[in-house]
Design brief:
By secondary structure, the protein is of the alpha/beta class. The chain has ten helices and eight strands. It has an eight-stranded mixed beta sheet with strand order 1-2-4-3-5-6-7-8, sandwiched between helices. β3, α3 and β4 form a beta-alpha-beta unit. It is globular.
């Protein structure tokens, strides 16, 4: 396992914040006529950009909630604070809503995540960003969505994109085996171990985008171990741009939610990862 070395200095984190601009509730699916009412309600995103900047990197961030709960404006997910914190450091943030189980079942929410990422690649230049520097990530179930989109080329193919369109994946405490909500949708026990086409680990190979894996010292039961397994298996497969960080004194919630804090180690790791990978794009 390779531990990500945090290169950002304390001085950089305390520098004056960049002014930001927010554009809310942008539909990310174009064919409105064919969308269900639930898609029209949920398939929208907020975009936070560093005001006046050009050529910046963008991070598409999916919140958690077990694929059953969550919203981009929900206080408990801290999406507003996370996107503002990262944008103040010069990285634009896209926070999409997506359809939730049980109103829909797999792969509907994964398809939504892919559509939100594709919208970003195709439209971020209109807002000053560089479409070659679009990253994807999230927390918990949102991190699982990010991995499925960023690791399986078939998720992006309908949008005319490839895995080469993914500048990198920075995920926090994903379930890398088949998610328990998907298992429940299939009438399987919550803890029945499954690794099929709905599992990020199913797509591990040498030729993947760069990946940063972050998890908590006191993560939920088996989640830290799943992420350690994921990192180790990527290494075994020969995946070179494979980084990880275990954040001490964090649990499953705070390892993601505390990214809003300027001195949070997960925040610094994400910013460093984006800066490093952007330099090579």
């Amino acid at each position: 396992m390779r531990l990500l070395v945090l290169l950002l200095s304390l001085a950089a984190t305390s520098a004056a914040a960049i002014e930001t601009k927010v554009v809310k509730d942008i539909p990310y699916k174009d064919d409105v006529i064919s969308l269900t009412p639930y898609e029209q309600e949920r398939c929208k995103l907020d975009l936070t950009v560093p005001a006046g900047a050009k050529g910046f990197a963008t991070y598409v961030w999916f919140y958690g909630g077990g694929m059953k709960n969550g919203a981009k404006d929900l206080r408990t997910e801290y999406c507003t604070e996370i996107r503002e914190s990262l944008a103040q450091a010069g990285v634009a943030v896209v926070t999409p809503d997506y359809r939730l189980s049980p109103k829909v079942k797999y792969p509907a929410y994964v398809d939504d995540a892919a559509a939100a990422f594709a919208w970003t690649v195709k439209h971020i230049a209109e807002h000053g960003g560089d479409p070659r520097k679009v990253f994807i990530g999230g927390h918990s179930a949102g991190a699982t969505l990010a991995l499925l989109v960023g690791m399986d080329p078939d998720r992006l193919k309908p949008h005319g994109l490839t895995l080469g369109s993914v500048a990198g994946i920075a995920q926090v405490s994903a379930q890398v085996l088949t998610h328990y909500t998907i298992r429940e949708e299939r009438n399987q026990p919550r803890y029945a171990i499954t690794c099929d086409e709905a599992a990020p680990a199913f797509y591990i190979r040498k030729t993947l985008p760069p990946i940063l894996t972050i998890y908590a010292q006191n993560d939920m039961l088996s989640r830290a171990e799943e992420n350690q397994f994921f990192v180790t298996t990527l290494k075994a497969a020969g995946h070179a741009e494979n980084y990880s960080l275990r954040v001490d004194d964090r649990d499953h919630g705070t390892v993601g939610h505390n990214i809003r804090n300027l001195d949070d180690p997960a925040r610094l790791a994400i910013l460093n990862f984006i800066a490093k990978q952007s330099a090579s794009r």
